[in-house]
Amino acid sequence: MARQPSSPPADEPLSIRVVRAIAAHDGVDPVDLSPPLYASIDPAALDSLFEPTSPARPGERVGSLTFDYDGKQVTVGADGEITIDSSPETDRSSRRSI
After folding, report:
1. CB contact at 8 A, 6 and 98
2. Long-range contacts of range 3-12, CB-CB < 8 Å, 24 or more positions apart?
3. Which backbone phi and psi does 8 adopt, to 5 degrees?
4. Is 61 exposed, middle or buried (0-12, 13-18, 19+ CB in 10 A)?
5. pLDDT in tens, 29-41
6. Other CB atoms closer than 10 Å to residue 83's CB: what's the count?
7. pTM
8. What single DSSP character describes residue 16?
9. What CA–CA distances, in Å, run from 58 to 9, 13, 54, 62, 81?
10. Is the alpha carbon torsion for 63, 78, 81, 34 positive or negative?
11. Bridge partners (DSSP) listed for residue 96
12. Which residues make Cβ contacts (< 8 Å) with residue 23, sequence separation at least 6?
């Protein structure tokens, strides 16, 4: 499993980070990503999924979400880690964390 350090802007929505991660995995520019992310998951729902419930008490974020995107499994952790598995049925060595 290869990990690439990323330092997205603090205010960058999670959905944009996912688009960037998939594009990096596929070796394309994010604007050229096809199909668009919304064909697989609602970007607004993804953005709100791991938001703190209260700004005064953010608490510990736990859990993850896995969804299919164009033949890949994309897992987004509450900690912000994004993992892309290109061929989940056959070869787990193609898994990359971004």
Report:
1. yes
2. 3/96, 3/97, 3/98, 4/96, 4/97, 4/98, 6/98
3. -70, 155
4. middle
5. 999 999 999 999 9
6. 19
7. 0.74
8. H
9. 19, 17, 6, 12, 18
10. positive
11. 2, 84
12. 29, 30, 32, 33
pLDDT digits 0-9 by tens, 10-66: 578 999 999 999 999 999 999 999 999 999 999 999 998 887 665 655 566 678 999
Is residue 15 a contact partner of residue 45, using CB atoms and an 8 Å limit?
A: no
Side chain identity at residue 32, one-letter code: D
The pair of structure tokens assigned to 55 is 């700004």
